[in-house]
Amino acid sequence: MIPALAGTVLADAPGRPLLLVGPSVGTTVEALWGRCVDRLGGRFHVIGWDLPGHGRSPSPPGPFTVEELARAVLDLAGDAPFRYAGVSLGGATGLALMLAAPAQVQAAVLLCTGARIGTPASWRERAGLVRGSGTAVMIEGSAKRWFAPGFLSREPAAGSALLHALRDTDREGYALACLALAALDLRDRLAEITTPVLAVAGALDEATPPASLASIASGVRYGRLVVLDDTAHQAPAERPDEVAALLLSQLSQPGMAVRRTVLGDAHVDRAAPTPFTAGFQDLISRYAWGEIWTRPGLDRRSRSMITLTALVALGHHEELALHVRAARTNGLTDAEIEEVLLQTAIYCGVPAANTAFRIAAKVLAELNAEAGPVDNSAEVSAETATVTPTHRGGGGGGGRDLGKNDLEPNAGQSSGGHA
Fold it and tell me: How far, in Å, are 135, 183, 203, 212, 217 from residue 66 at the CA level?
């Protein structure tokens, strides 16, 4: 059944793009996300949701699945397009959201999560333990699993808020969340997800280790992986500055996320704007990549084929080389690129196609040399980065109940995904 979820406004910024954030089991969205949201500088209208029986959400009357959690989150959003960020079960709910409403979810950051987390037996065992003894029985173990060594002594208020939220969680709500995780397995559906995804792992996370996030980043069509040093399972609370920076990078302009995923960080970094080119670079990211490449009407393989044809016809050879690489990223095989160029020989002219074949052959040879034998069944490889914490700050995230005007579409929100 679809559970009832309470939404809490964590950053009241009407007119800004909508960002929904989700929690992990045993936490409240305010305790987990409050300090991180404070660091977003009012760039988003942020609404958090609590799991059933957690925080402000009522205790569930019966079992629910992760897919049903996603439907409940969509009920909170209404028809508004939104960005999404979630931790653990909240991150898995993000996967289900992108499968259920790919045109509505513009970009996502999934933290400390997995397409499958743990084992069904372990979650059923935990559900039985909490039903019998309450959530207090989980506090000691969670304090060790949730936080990197030394965090509780460095940030006692932040750690205490999360452990108190665990103690206060309804035991049946916690147990049913465990059973939802026992049934979770979206591994075979990751390739269906075309929303840009940033997967964020804690280097010290035992519950969802970096390999779990790497599987998401490599499994979805447009995924990237970041691993946070000295971080365990509750990244927004442990590393509010670093996570806020990642959210701003991935979510402020979804077109930039798509541009980096398709063209590669190296190219985008080389094209970093100067005072003279800043307006043009913004135009490209906002409209070409944010409005056109993110439209649901064509998949990106088709858009790559159309782009290659147009560049051959117009003789834009430098851009053609760039987009041959992009076509491979978007899943085209060498043989399919050859077919596109053969088609251009008829409709764009043999001389144009001759030049295009020469350029494409050089680029594909370089790509094959870089990658070794090409596995054309792979859609995209994940780009991996490691982020070292640089600053740690205090603060508190107050929230208010969700109001009827909090989800009204506005000029700052666009189904095309530009910021």
Answer: 21, 8, 25, 17, 20
Q: Which residues of 285-314 are buried (b: 16+ CB within 10 A; e: fewer)?
A: bbeebbeebbeeeeebeebbbebbbebbee
Tokens representing residue 178 in the block: 């465990």
User: Cβ(40)–Cβ(152) under 8 Å?
Assistant: no
* 8 Å CB contact between 339 and 361: no
Q: Are 385 and 264 in contact (CB under 8 A)?
A: no
pTM of the full structure: 0.72
Interval 393-418 mean pLDDT: 42
Q: Greatest CA separation found in the chain?
A: 77
- Residues ≥6 apart with Cβ < 8 Å to 93: 22, 66, 69, 70, 73, 86
Delineate the domains of the chain, giving CATH numbers in brackets.
7-259+386-401 (3.40.50.1820), 280-371 (1.20.1290.10)
Residue holding tokens 């084929």?
A: 305
- Per-residue pLDDT tens for 288-322? 887 788 777 888 899 999 999 999 999 999 999 99
Would residue 200 be called left, alpha or beta, if left means φ above 0 and alpha means ψ between -120 and 50 degrees? beta
